[in-house]
């Protein structure tokens, strides 16, 4: 008879443990859901988000671009040119310009041509490594400042590839 009593005593403790774990899981899940509602903003509907994007700011897939004239940023066409030395090396750069006030597309095109002309005078040794890239960024920023008379506040590099 003692064996039966021992088994009966162990059985309720296992059921109680499972019940306690289930209740704690539900409480934790509910608490996480509640905190998520208070901290996370509600998702914006897709139709509203697309309606707010200017027509010229959508990419090929219909997704909005970061660089739009509405927010003062003009993304220049990608620049692909060979370097001064060695001439068989090519560089591809995608740059966006942040204007102070209304963007000037004509000025952006002049800056685009100026960056192309500058990149043709740069050698591979000048732009190698992080320090060389920083010098290149500083030189381009300085050229843009001179060309724009301070109307362009920031030059943002989107891609930089040397082949």
From TrEMBL:
Pfam families: FliL
Main subcellular location of this protein, as a coarse class: membrane
Protein role: Controls the rotational direction of flagella during chemotaxis.
One GO CC term, this protein: bacterial-type flagellum basal body
Compartment(s): Cell inner membrane; Cell membrane
Protein name: Flagellar protein FliL
Keywords: Cell inner membrane, Cell membrane, Cell projection, Chemotaxis, Cilium, Flagellar rotation, Flagellum, Membrane, Transmembrane, Transmembrane helix
InterPro entries for this protein: FliL
Organism ancestry: Bacteria, Pseudomonadati, Pseudomonadota, Alphaproteobacteria, Hyphomicrobiales
GO process annotations (BP): bacterial-type flagellum-dependent cell motility; chemotaxis
Family per similarity comment: Belongs to the FliL family.
Membrane topology: Single-pass membrane protein
Transmembrane segments: 12-39
